[in-house]
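Design job #97: recover the sequence.
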């Protein structure tokens, strides 16, 4: 993950909304419906990245659980801790990139 320094126009409110979107994907979806929030580049970037990461996580955890006949489901809660780490980085005001996911959403023009 590459990390960029914090921009000067990022407020504490922006950081909070961005951080909450990672463990609670519903917050990220709601942010994209709020005009004042989705016009803020920091919040929009993290909201879209969070939604994409959660979709990938759900798909991968379902596949892992199905392939391992349920035993892979034991490691899913441990993998979910990564979302708390990403939330922490967002709350610190960092524009970090998740390697495959961030490149995908940038190529699609979503951020």
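Job complete. Output follows.
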């Amino acid at each position: 993950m590459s990390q960029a320094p914090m921009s000067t126009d990022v407020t504490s409110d922006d950081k909070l909304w961005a951080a909450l979107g990672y463990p609670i994907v519903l917050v990220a979806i709601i942010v994209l419906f709020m005009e004042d929030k989705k016009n803020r580049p920091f919040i929009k970037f993290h909201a879209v990245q969070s939604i994409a990461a959660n979709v990938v996580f759900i798909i991968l955890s379902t596949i892992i659980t199905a392939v391992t006949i349920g035993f892979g489901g034991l490691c899913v809660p441990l993998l979910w801790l990564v979302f708390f780490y990403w939330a922490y980085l967002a709350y610190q005001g960092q524009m970090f990139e998740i390697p495959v996911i961030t490149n995908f959403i940038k190529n699609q023009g979503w951020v």
